[in-house]
């Protein structure tokens, strides 16, 4: 599945991306590194690592709109296909992405499931990754296409 992001998708996801940009800025200010990969800002190290290692979060990578935060650069490389599904989800849900993700996890837990593994957002990301569908192509970072 090939995917192109539009200006509208960037704008619709902007509220969630803003949270990601705050984490990215704190990460850079505390020794972390950042890079742009196909129109998505990827950040690792510094505050980003500290945040992801918190007991209440414990993640290797986290998507906030068009920002993906990882513990290490290798983690970002490894989880890129999975996290790109979350970028598409943020584009689909816009400002409701974070609340919807949290509600979906809580609903899974209330039904006796696991708030992460049984979260529909995660199930979609793992399914697309396994099927090799997590392809991302961004026209903003490739002018002239």
Percentage of residues assigned to helices: 40-55%
Structural class, by secondary structure, is: alpha+beta
Uncertain segments are: 135-145
Q: β content, as a range?
A: 5-15%
Strand order, main sheet: write it out: 1-2-4-3
The number of distinct β-strands equals 4
Radius of gyration over all CA atoms, rounded: 15 Å
The ordered string of helix (H) and strand (E) elements is HHEEHEEHHH
Shape: globular
Which features would summarize this protein structure in a list?
disordered C terminus, 51% helix, single chain, alpha+beta, 145 residues
What report would you give on this structure?
The protein has helices spanning 7-12, 14-29, 47-52, 73-93, 97-110, 120-130, and strands at 33-37, 40-44, 61-64, 67-70. A hairpin with a 2-residue loop joins β3 and β4. The protein is globular, with a radius of gyration of 15 Å. The model is unreliable at 135-145 (pLDDT under 50). The chain is an alpha+beta fold. Strands 1-2-4-3 form a four-stranded mixed β-sheet.
